[in-house]
Amino acid sequence: MNREDMLKALRKIPQSCVYEEHQAKIRGKSGGHMVILHPNEHEKINKIYEKYKEISKVIEDVQMEITELEENGKKAKDKVMTCCKSIKSSIETYEQQMMEKIESYKNMKKQILTDHLNHLHTIEQLFKVKNEEINHCINDSDININDRKLKLQQLLDDSSVQTISWNNHGKQVDTVIDIDSFDSLFDSVKHLFQQYMVIHERGIIKMDQVQLIDSNNEKPLIHVQWNVDNICDMWRHACCTYQLEVEPTQMKNKDVNIQGWKVIAQIKGEKDKHNGSIQYGDEKENSLEWGNTYSLRMRICGCDGISYSHYSDIATLETNTFDSIIIEKKENIQSKLLLLYRGSRDGFASKDFHSKCDGKGPTVTVVLSDKYSHVFGGYTSLPWTSEAGWKSDATAFLYLLRSGKGDKPEKWVINTNYENQA
């Protein structure tokens, strides 16, 4: 028996030292005991491992997104650089063309002035010669006095001199060469860059409803309901805002201070929120006015000045003032309407009415007759008072809106020549 066979045999005999050493080595490798797993524990271990693989895959995907983002960012920069170089080249070409056109324009006017100047020099020379001849005739003592007079008369009567004329009425051409509207040009170029040199967000925003919510406000108060789609939650929550823009389309009120499209309101995007509303009108800078028609639109802004979605469809908003078949056009001045008194709310006693209406200025009273189903009332420009007596109001009138008998709506004004008795 060789040594190796002997060791194998001794490892199987518990009483041998070789056996103890062999068992110690086995315990060192396995921790001394083998763990027996329950099936549920085995399942949990598998789930943890699966989650590990899942998160590893997500990490890999995010790392790929970062790499892709960097590559696309570089491509976008290269595209902008190429575009700007092309624009610069076009501007330089146009600059050269403009220099040539200005030079040509200047030379055309210069040629006109040069031709006119040559003509004037010719006339000047003619008069110079004529003047020299006259002086010579007057001062030449070698010629008989009578001959000098005769010659002088001939020189003075020369018809060619008498008929010579030239233009001496101010400037011959306008020498001003001015390129106007540079500020407008810069603004237009800036607007074009803002409009076209942008990153288009994939998100979509829609306006579900646009409405006026308070016709009694000093200025229009509007409420816009919106919804968004196809935009990542993390991006929406971290960076996105929703912008509301307005542009006047019909302006009965000439005090409108909006020129073109203008952002009037914006709100921050929220995670897991796909719809909401914007209210505009309470701001001190409210630029809307009653009696006008406006166009409204919205878009998503990811990064101001560079990243936007496409615009929503355009909605039309009419901020009409109070229209009435009873109040005439001359009386239809823009006013703030306020409900002062309601019998069902404030009480039907006269003191209830006067406590709410006294001293409040012009009023329109509306009366509903439950028994006969009449709706009627009146208007007075004078403030109500609890004092006994009467006052004259030439602008007062009565009206009927609805009659239980079927009468048409009607208005009764003060008869002419009876204003003082009204």
Secondary structure elements and pairings:
Blueprint: H1 3-10, H2 17-30, H3 39-139, H4 145-156, H5 159-162, H6 182-196, E1 199-200, E2 204-212, E3 222-229, H7 233-238, E4 241-251, E5 262-268, E6 275-280, E7 292-303, E8 307-308, E9 315-318, H8 343-346, H9 350-357, E10 363-369, E11 374-380, E12 397-402, E13 410-413
Parallel strand pairs: 1-8
Antiparallel strand pairs: 2-3, 3-6, 4-5, 4-7, 7-8, 7-9, 10-11, 11-12, 12-13
Helix pairs in contact: 3-4
Verbal overview:
This protein has 422 residues and is α+β, with helices and mostly antiparallel strands. It has 3 domains: 42-172, no CATH class; 202-318, Immunoglobulins (Immunoglobulin-like, Sandwich), CATH 2.60.40; 329-421, no CATH class. 41% of the residues lie in helices and 20% in strands. The protein has helices spanning 3-10, 17-30, 39-139, 145-156, 159-162, 182-196, 233-238, 343-346, 350-357; strands at residues 199-200, 204-212, 222-229, 241-251, 262-268, 275-280, 292-303, 307-308, 315-318, 363-369, 374-380, 397-402, 410-413. The strands form 3 sheets. Strands 1, 4, 5, 7, 8 and 9 form a 6-stranded mixed sheet that branches. The model has no long low-confidence stretch (mean pLDDT 82). InterPro entries: TLDc_dom. Residues 52-111 form a coiled coil. This is TLDc domain-containing protein. Keywords: Coiled coil.
